[in-house]
Write a structure and sequence with these properties.
Number of helices: 3
Low-confidence stretches: none
Largest sheet: 6 strands, mixed
CATH class: Alpha Beta
Strand content: over 45%
Shape: globular
Strand order of the largest sheet: 2-1-6-5-4-3
Helix content: 25-40%
């Protein structure tokens, strides 16, 4: 049975890792982001392909995003974790916004994000993430104007 103190410590460490991801995204810092993912991370993001496998593929995805933005704002709301000894999962709402390279401001869209985390050598790393938007079934289109 896990002690409450251990849970609090792990929960705080998990939140620090997501905070580091937010800071890395805002700074467009691929090196910081690289340190947050397992080497074999699997990412189901909102843009094709269906999955990005491995740290290099995940970072390539972020590099494409950064190439479109002059400035990046990233925010996470309602982050919740369920924590085990060496695995944890979390979910939240997140929004990427900012100023595009052409000078246009974009408010982005709120997405649902799920994190699968693994504790490796005492550090919590992102082993899986999934980003999604609700689907309007009759039209077959994602609903991107909802807010938490």
């Amino acid at each position: 049975m896990r002690m409450f103190k251990d849970f609090q410590t792990d929960d705080a460490e998990l939140r620090k890792q997501i905070d580091k991801a937010v800071e890395g995204l805002r700074a467009k810092d691929l090196e910081t982001l690289k340190q947050l993912y397992t080497t074999d991370v699997v990412s189901f993001d909102v843009e094709p392909p269906l999955q990005h496998v491995g740290r290099a593929a995940k970072l390539e995805n972020w590099a494409r995003v950064f190439s479109l933005f002059e400035t990046v704002t990233y925010e996470v709301r309602d982050l919740t974790f369920t924590v085990g000894d060496d695995v944890a999962f979390g979910h939240a709402f997140a929004r990427l916004s900012g100023t595009l390279k052409n000078g246009a401001a974009t408010s982005g869209m709120w997405v649902r994000v799920t994190y699968g985390m693994r504790k490796i050598d005492g550090r919590w790393l992102i082993a899986h993430d999934q980003v999604s938007v609700p689907l309007d079934i009759p039209s077959g289109k994602g609903v991107v104007d909802l807010e938490p």
